[in-house]
Amino acid sequence: MLQTLTDEEKSWIAPQPILYDANLPGYVEMMKMMGEHASPNMPKAQAIKDATMAYFIYTNLQKDSVFIHYNGSYHSDNFEGINWYLKKYQRNTQIITISTVEQKDLATLEKENYNKADYILVIDEDVTKTY
Q: With bands split at pLDDT 50, 70 and 90, how would you rate the model's confidence at 78?
């Protein structure tokens, strides 16, 4: 499908071919979450977004500077998504990630949230949602 894009449209996304690893845990989990609605194209679409964000971060990095990129946690949790692609473009890029998790008990990080990011913000599971 990406081959049918115009040259201008192709300039808006990561260069093709876009690498894809269906075995990355985040993409595997996406397929599980979708259940009977799962399509192999869902994680591929996510991968295109991740690769594109990583590509444009890479092309805009400047030596001896800090680049801040805000994204939904799904795009960087467990050091996957954008991180995985950015490391493909420039292996030695230093990346620091922040994730937010919801928990009932704010005092102790639940095991399933270990190692999601370099820094993990724990918020009350009853917090008002705006999405």
A: very high
Calculate the alpha carbon distances from 69 to 11, 17, 57, 111 in Å: 20, 24, 8, 27
SS3 7: helix
pTM for the full predicted model:
0.87
Of 78, 81, 82, 49, which Cα lies nearest the Cα of 68?
82
Whole-number Å distance between alpha carbons of 48 and 38? 17
Structure tokens at 104: 């009932």
- 67 pLDDT band (50/70/90 cuts)? very high
**DSSP letter, residue 84:** H
Q: What angle do CA 106, 107, 111 make, to 5 degrees?
A: 85
Radius of gyration of the chain (CA): 17
Average pLDDT estimate for 80-96 = 94
Tokens 């102790």 found at: 108
Amino acid at 33: M
10 Å Cβ neighbour count for 102?
A: 15
- CA atoms of 84 and 97, how far apart (whole Å): 12
